[in-house]
Amino acid sequence: MVRNYEKTSDKLASDPSIPTGELGAYATGQAYDQRTHDIRQSRARGERETGGVKIVEVEASKRSATSQQVVACIDLTGLTVTDKNGKEIDLPYDRVERIYTVEKSDGETQDGKWRVTAEKVKQTC
């Protein structure tokens, strides 16, 4: 789920013609709201991404029947971000640790799929 979330985010950041709603297949709640907001803001500034992030380490912990915490080390060295003039924007880190909350949507009106519901950047890894 986390890999698809990051892969789809990369796709959305590299191609402004793709609707940000595609991220809804892998995220909801705070994670969806924040990531789509960030992508829309980047698009409004005319920024473009090429390449993408790579998950180099991932560990799932604190699992229950409907919730799981996933800690991942994300390598940003394959990612290039350019501004509206095509000038490369320096990224502050080569790697960051992200902590994701992944939850199963259970209930009568929900589809029972796992999605990222929250994420935070903890530190470099």
Could you name the key traits of this structure?
125 residues, alpha+beta, Nuclear Transport Factor 2, Chain: A, four-stranded antiparallel β-sheet, three-stranded antiparallel β-sheet, 2 helices, globular
Write up what this structure looks like.
There is one protein chain. With about 120 residues, this protein is of the alpha+beta class. It is about 25% helix and about 40% strand. The protein has two helices and seven strands. Strands 2-3-6-7 form a four-stranded antiparallel β-sheet. A three-stranded antiparallel β-sheet has the order 1-4-5. The radius of gyration is 15 Å and the shape is globular. The two termini are about 20 Å apart.
Question: How is the topology of this model organized?
Answer:
Blueprint (H helix, E strand, L loop, with lengths): L1 H13 L14 H16 L3 E4 L2 E8 L5 E9 L3 E4 L5 E2 L5 E10 L9 E10 L2
Antiparallel strand pairs: 1-4, 2-3, 3-6, 4-5, 6-7
The topology string of helices and strands comes to HHEEEEEEE
CATH architecture: Roll
Please tell me the total number of domains.
1
Query: How many angstroms does the end-to-end distance come to?
Result: 21 Å
Strand composition percent = 35-45%
Text of the CATH class = Alpha Beta
